[in-house]
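Supplementary Note 3. Input sequence used for the single-chain structure prediction.
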Amino acid sequence: MSGRFSEGKMTAAMREMASVLNVSPDGARLLQLTNNAVFALPRHGIVIRIARTHQLLDRVAKVVQLGRWFAEIDAPTIRLVREVEQPIHFEGLHASVWRYVPSHPPAPTVDDLGTVLREFHALGVPPFPLPAWDPIGDARRRLADADGLSTPDRDFLVDWCDRLEPEVAVLNEHGTRTLVHGDAHVGNLLRESSDRMLMCDFDATCVGPWQVDLAAVAVGDARFGEAGRHRALTAAYGSDVTSDPSWAVLRDARELKMIAAAIPLLATSPSVAAEFSNRLHSVQRDDPTARWRPFADLAVPTSPSAERGHGASLGGGVPAERR
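The predicted structure, written as discrete structure tokens, is reproduced below.
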């Protein structure tokens, strides 16, 4: 991110927004600084979530609309602050305000993720438009703004998108359409004092095949050399995504996302650039056994993705584990 969206600028924006809300920013804590700057104000029981761009009003508006619907149907999700007119706008920035949920033990697990995903997918499709699952569009947008990407690597990624795009379109058209969280990992879970599990972070929420939300853990097990997480998720959810007829497309789409996530940092982080090359070359060699390192374990100024639950969760807790 450029200096326009630095931690200092985001903190200043948070303080101004807090003033608009008639609350003091004293004691505010920065929970996350990725695509959003997420600040907890525990004294006032709120979280302010600021999009680190001047361009994504539609995304913030979508999240707010989802938040209202979730409250109406008592979904297993965090809640918007109803007393605030949202989204909030300040000097071209857009933000949403949520109820602060303190962490309660025990920490969320993959078993919890499977259980809450089953409930989430059963909510049905909202009565308002949502974008369709579009991993190819996401990758192409990153390629369009890429710095530090060699021509051969760019060409390979473009060809990958061209090859995968019609397969994704077929899956979107013929698969079961349901609500897809889009970034389902343990770090996006919170446990209330009542022991109810809540999901947070709906930037990537869309309509598509429900299997998308199970693919991340399965691919993570394979690529990061983990064991048991996919098995636990399968048992809790009641379905093994790796046995699904769509698995090859889902795996391909997930791996494309995990590689494209690094593109914005190639020019500024040598460690990310090295891991990007490792990932891309393993795909070029068609080597499904090659091991990857999580970007969040590298020296990264701003992690490109919470690909396995790294980073602070929106509601105020921290992830159950750091791998």
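The two ends are 25 Å apart (CA to CA). The chain has two domains: 3-99, 110-297.
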